[in-house]
């Protein structure tokens, strides 16, 4: 995805609005790392989780070659399971860190931060209010 502009209307206390343009950095631009929210069994079951493991291992293996990978694991039990999967696939853990968060799906875009730049080039974090069905 090339960068795209997002127009946000910011309301002030006086309820007047000011438009500010933000741009999502293009994917090929240098960045600190990628966030992956690992599949787990707690929402859709073991079969769903197991069917996605190979894809998440492959993504992690490819990403750690050139950047940091931040993995969100449901809990410490799942973190240990993920470490075992990565180790079994000979994926280096050097550029990987973990965060524990009880999520309900694999899409980090649903509950994670969205990084954009304002017209001055300043990095900002947005929360679009994604609820799994639409943005509010």
Q: Your description of this structure?
A:
With 136 residues, the chain is α/β, with parallel strands linked by helices. It has 2 domains: 1-30 and 113-136, no CATH class; 33-105, no CATH class. The protein is 29% helix and 29% strand. It has helices at 41-44, 46-63, 76-88, 108-111; strands at residues 5-11, 17-23, 33-37, 68-73, 96-100, 114-118, 123-126. The strands form 2 sheets. It has a 4-stranded antiparallel sheet, with no helix packed on it. Strand 6 (114-118) and strand 7 (123-126) form a beta hairpin. The longest helix has 18 residues, at 46-63. The protein is globular.
Topology:
Elements lengths: L4 E7 L5 E7 L9 E5 L3 H4 L1 H18 L4 E6 L2 H13 L7 E5 L7 H4 L2 E5 L4 E4 L10
Parallel strand pairs: 3-4, 4-5
Antiparallel strand pairs: 1-2, 2-6, 6-7
């Amino acid at each position: 995805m090339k960068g795209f502009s997002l127009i946000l209307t910011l309301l002030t206390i006086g309820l007047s609005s000011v438009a500010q343009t933000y741009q999502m950095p293009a994917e090929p631009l240098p960045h600190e790392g990628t966030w992956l929210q690992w599949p787990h069994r707690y929402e859709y079951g073991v079969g769903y989780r197991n069917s996605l493991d190979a894809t998440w291992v492959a993504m992690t293996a490819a990403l750690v070659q050139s950047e940091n990978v931040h993995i969100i694991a449901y809990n410490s039990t799942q973190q240990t399971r993920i470490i075992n999967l990565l180790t079994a696939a000979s994926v280096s853990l050097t550029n990987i860190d973990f965060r524990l968060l009880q999520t309900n799906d694999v899409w980090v875009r649903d509950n994670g931060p969205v990084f954009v730049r304002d017209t001055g080039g300043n990095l900002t974090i947005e929360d679009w209010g994604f609820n799994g069905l639409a943005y509010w």
